[in-house]
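Thread: "does anyone have the structure for this chain?"

Original post by V.I.:
We have the sequence but no experimental structure in hand. Need at least a predicted one for the grant figures.
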Amino acid sequence: MKVSMKLLVVGVALMSAIFTGCEKDKDPDPKTNNTDGLTLIASGYTDAGSMLVKVWAKDSLYSQYTPLFIEVKDSATNTVIEDAHIEIMPMMEMTTMTHSAPFENPTSATAVNGLFPCAVVFQMPGEMGWTLNVMVQENVNGGMGDVTFPLAVITPTPTRTRVVTPANGGNKLVISYVQPTSPKVGINDFEITLHSKESMDSWPGIENYTVEIDPQMPSMGHGSPNNVNPTHSANGHYNGQVNFTMTGVWNVNLRIMDGTTVVDSTAYFEVTLQ
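Reply from O.Q.:
Generated one for you, tokens below.
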């Protein structure tokens, strides 16, 4: 019995050593690349400052609210620059006019995992005509330069941005769908952006409107309860909740008001639940 017990102890110890050795021999988990899951939209060098700028997005560019991610590297060392002031400027050159679009510059001079988040609301498609200027001021060594990229913007299906003329007159209103991007049956976070066309180059976010939502299922002839109307959070973003009670095609109807005055009640966004 004593011999058997000794053999058992030795066996257990040996197996433990083997498994421990295997664990130590395992390669460490590779670091996640800062651009994993993103699509490279454009890449180029600044006109001064010796910097390589790359523009990344979650997908191809569509005429909708589009998060972008700016990556900046020292062109000599290929080192990622993480301390910089960055400004973007989207422009659309048409046959008879040139105009900009609603956009959001990076809110911090410190990169997030090597990237500077920003966003553009491309309010119209264009295989040609759109450009994005990126200005970079690198804070460590003081390098400064900019680069302009041509962009191709395509139409999403269904529509994700609507430009309407307010019922009470005034500047055109740009309404863009943000989420839910993966809608599910039940309560979903709902978000849109509202921007005003003050001029060809100025499209500020609207902060003082009231938004009501009315989700309806056209094929079934009913809506849903327990929705939360979006309210302004920041920079023209309005956040609420929408309740989809079953799968199928829904229309989220919008009623947008300035005080007691109806600005628009025609816009809606189609959402399909599989």
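V.I.: this helps a lot. The mean pLDDT is 90.
O.Q.: and The longest helix spans residues 2-25.
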